[in-house]
Amino acid sequence: MESNLPALVLGSASPRRADLLAQLGLKFQVTAADIDETPQLDEAPRSYVQRMAEEKADALADLGSSLLLTADTTVVLDEVSLGKPQDAAQARQMLERLSDRSHEVYTAVCARQGLCSETVLVRTLVEFAPLTPALIDAYLSTDEPWDKAGAYAIQGLAGSFVRRIDGSVSNVIGLPLVETRELLADFGLVAGLRGGRA
Questions:
Q1: 1 inside domain
Q2: What are phi and psi of 182, to 5 degrees?
Q3: 172 near 124, Cβ under 8 Å?
Q4: Dihedral angle, C-alpha 190, 104, 110, 42, nearest 10 °
Q5: Does residue 193 lie within any of the structural domains?
Q6: Displacement of CA 196 from its chain's centroid (Å)
Q7: CA triplet 17, 107, 11: central angle to 5 degrees?
Q8: Dmax over Cα atoms in the chain, in whole Å?
Q9: What per-residue confidence (pLDDT) applies to 6?
Q10: What are the pLDDT digits (tens) for 143-159?
Q11: 3-state helix, strand, coil in the chain (%, to 5)
Q12: In this structure, is residue 35 part of a structural domain?
């Protein structure tokens, strides 16, 4: 391990996860994990996100004694994961399916230090209001739907689509803060003592 690595490493390319982790007041470095994110045949969504979070940790195992935090999030409708849209047509289809319905958002968070590893799975239920074709068109004209599971960002304009939410809002954004803080505390890292990114 390089001597200048901080105690905590966020293994994610998501700026949203980095922003959320920064809210805990911890110093950390960001290092993205490059893995194959193809779902396995008949793999359940909750199993998929747990496997992804843990495989991201596996891919960054050479960081030595640093405490590594990885995560993966998926939007689930009718037991089917809605990943990141490949194009506008797919994004439109996702939003049409989510309209006037409830769906689940799962995030798995893995903390690993040496041979010690712990993974938590968090579920949030989100209910969308009806989305008219004009509203979907307007949303697709923004930058928000891209690179987002389910083709929406609850922390942005799509927050106005949400009629009801049961569970963690930060989980829907990509990193459940309560569970992440508790998970890091299990490894001796207490939130709020240090600030800023490395």
A1: no
A2: -65, -40
A3: yes
A4: 170
A5: no
A6: 20
A7: 40
A8: 54
A9: 56
A10: 999 989 999 999 999 99
A11: 35, 25, 40
A12: yes
Question: Is the pLDDT at 17 greater than 50, yes or no?
Answer: yes
Number of folded domains that form the chain:
1
Hunting for tokens 């935090």 — which residue is that? 69
Give a yes or no: residue 38 inside a domain: yes
Amino acid occupying residue 16: R
Going by C-beta distance under 8 Å and a sequence separation of 6 or more, which residues neighbour residue 134? none
Decide if 71 contacts 107 (C-beta within 8 A).
Answer: yes
Strand partners, 81: 76
Tell me the C-alpha distance between 28 and 184, whole Å.
Answer: 12
From 19, 72, 100, 147, the catalytic residue = 72
Which tokens belong to 47? 């199993």
Percentage of residues in the chain having pLDDT higher than 70: 94
Of 177, 183, 178, give the one whose Cα is nearest residue 117.
183
Tokens 């929406």, located at residue: 152
| pTM (two decimals) | 0.89
Residue 72 designated active-site = yes
Per the CB < 8 A criterion, the answer to whether 47 and 79 are in contact is no
Looking up residue 26, the CATH number of its domain turns out to be 3.90.950.10
Rounded to whole angstroms, how far apart are CA atoms 155 and 7? Answer: 29
Host domain of residue 80? 8-186
Which pair of structure tokens corresponds to residue 94?
């996702």
Amino acid identity of residue 152, one-letter, is Y
C-alpha count within 13 angstroms, C-beta hemisphere, residue 77: 19
